[in-house]
Amino acid sequence: MAPAGPRSGDAIFASVERVNAELFTLTYGAIVRQLLTDLEEVDEVNKQLDQMGYNIGIRLVDEFLAKSNVSRCVDFKETAEVIAKVGFKMFLGVGASVTNWDAEGTCCSIVLEDNPLVDFVELPDTCQGLYYCNVLSGVIRGALEMVSVPSCASLSLVFSSSS
Amino acid sequence: MGREVSESCIDSLLTEMVSSYCNRFYANKPELAARRIEAIGYQVGHQLSERYTMERPRFSDHLEAIKFICKDFWSELFKKQIDNLKTNHRGTFVLQDNRFRWLARMSLDPTAEEGVPQDPAALAESKAAQAMSMYLYFPCGIIRGALSNLGIPCAVSADISNLPACEYPESYVLCVVMHACSLCSNGHCHGQL
């Protein structure tokens, strides 16, 4: 029997158990709001969101590897593409694209077209400097660390919606 | 069918939220951790109930509102309804979900005996039981928040149990006890935790 090839993000998303995205969006929003109340400093909240994401990512990567069947990526560019096309799709149900590569190929932007985390979210002026989606950076950082992608300490990903 | 995300997203977010509050932010203050987790749930329940009742007329009485929670609201969240609703007609309601999705991912023997754990395995199990009960503050908060938005201040607590006849051997029964506070007319109810 021929070995199964890598699966598309759409196919995986269609095959997993799915839940109401509003529950997810509002839970995340409530967590951020509570963190802002408890920690007060925006920088501290950013740090905690990243840490939470990291803890999630180190476990979530197992599910990713098991379901996506991707082979080892040859370089960071391929890694970024896989994260954007398969990773985000199979968990959040949204596609992402990779742009803004720097000359060395070590830094890029991953743009989510339609981020479920930010549905209905408006940040007041008092939250300047809050990286609302920082949990996503942490997830990716944790996941990559588990598959031995080096230099993750300086990984910082930019998330923006098209609006 | 509205927008969806994979179930792992909400599972991992909730697990990490409970873990962060219990083990990092309020490591030696389980009471405070519990209040925060419940407060997060309250926020979510309040907002969801707002959204899901936008196009409805007001509920005529408490029972109608609670039936809404058991049927439509629970279905939106868990794709199933509450299996059993009991009341003493004096303000206390018991909601029972025989296959509570969120508990399905946790492995814990709910029939573990009470008593002082002596060995590491039992200690680990009692820690797991503690984590489980912390986790349950979140759905309690959701219910309290949802009902509060419908004008019913209440106290909500939850328990897991196994049905004696082992009808549902592989799943965990969530029993939510809800006491509607007729005395708390100002909307502030210090729920039992």
Name its key features.
heterodimer; A: 163 residues; mainly alpha; B: 193 residues; alpha+beta; Muramoyl-pentapeptide Carboxypeptidase, domain 2; 5 helices; disordered C terminus
Description:
The complex is a heterodimer of chains A (163) and B (193). Chain A is mainly alpha-helical and 163 residues long. Chain A has 5 helices and 3 strands. Chain A has helices spanning 9-15, 21-39, 42-68, 76-92, 134-146, and strands at residues 18-20, 96-99, 109-112. Chain A is globular, with a radius of gyration of 16 Å. Chain A starts with 8 loop residues before the first helix and ends in a 17-residue tail after the last helix. Chain B is built from 5 helices and 5 strands; from the N terminus they run E-H-H-H-E-E-H-H-E-E. The relative contact order of chain B is 0.18. Residues 108-115, 163-170 and 183-193 of chain B have low confidence and may be disordered. Classes of the chains: A mainly alpha (163), B alpha+beta (193). The A-B interface holds A 13, 16-24, 26-31, 33-34, 38, 48, 51-52, 55-56, 59-60, 63, 90-93, 116, 119, 135 and B 2-10, 12-14, 16-17, 19-20, 24-25, 36, 39-41, 43-44, 47-48, 51, 76-77, 79.
What oligomeric assembly is this protein in? heterodimer
Strand content of chain A: 5-15%
Succession of helices and strands of chain A: HEHHHEEH
How many strand units of chain A?
3
Question: Between the first and last Cα atoms of chain B, what is the distance in angstroms?
Answer: 34 Å
Low-pLDDT sequence parts of chain A: 151-156
Strand content of chain B: 15-25%
From the 3D coordinates, which CATH architecture of chain B would you assign? Answer: 2-Layer Sandwich
SSE ordering of chain B: EHHHEEHHEE
Kindly name the structural category of chain A: mainly alpha
Note the overall shape of chain A.
globular
Distance between the termini of chain A: 47 Å
Alpha plus pi helix count of chain B: 5
The percent range for helix content of chain A is 40-55%
Task: Count every beta strand of chain B, where a strand is a DSSP E run of 2 or more residues.
Answer: 5
